[in-house]
Amino acid sequence: MDPTKSFLIIQPYTPKKETFNIYFIETHLSSEDTTIEVKLDSKDSSLENLFKINSQIKYYGKDIYLVNVYKCIFNPSLVDKKKIKFNNDINTVEIKITLT
Question: Are 79 and 97 in contact, with CB atoms under 8 Å apart?
């Protein structure tokens, strides 16, 4: 029997080198506009460059809402490896975006 076929070689985890754009929507009443602020987690170096790329006013009954679309850049190679959750073929990591 060939000894190299009697065990499984597990390759080390190597994060992807490219960056990804993350888009998300934030909606709130227009009366709260001066108090709303969206921020990336300053401790997470894998997230950067938060931009508001679109803003629209939507009416629902008597209420007026502001709908904002944001974009940030995610760099998986900068993720703290302790935060990565390994599940079968899918690796996940929790990112933190705060709304104050």
Answer: no
Q: Cα–Cα distances in Å, from 38 out to 41, 56, 58?
A: 10, 16, 19
Closest CA to 96 of 80, 86, 18: 80
Beta strands, E only, 1-100: 20-29, 38-40, 47-60, 63-74, 84-87, 90-93, 97-99
Other CB atoms closer than 10 Å to residue 46's CB: what's the count?
Answer: 20
Q: pTM of the full predicted structure? A: 0.73
Q: Cβ neighbours of residue 68 under 8 Å, at least 6 residues apart?
A: 25, 26, 27, 38, 52, 54, 55
pLDDT digit string, tens, across residues 55-94? 999 999 999 999 999 999 999 888 888 888 888 778 788 8
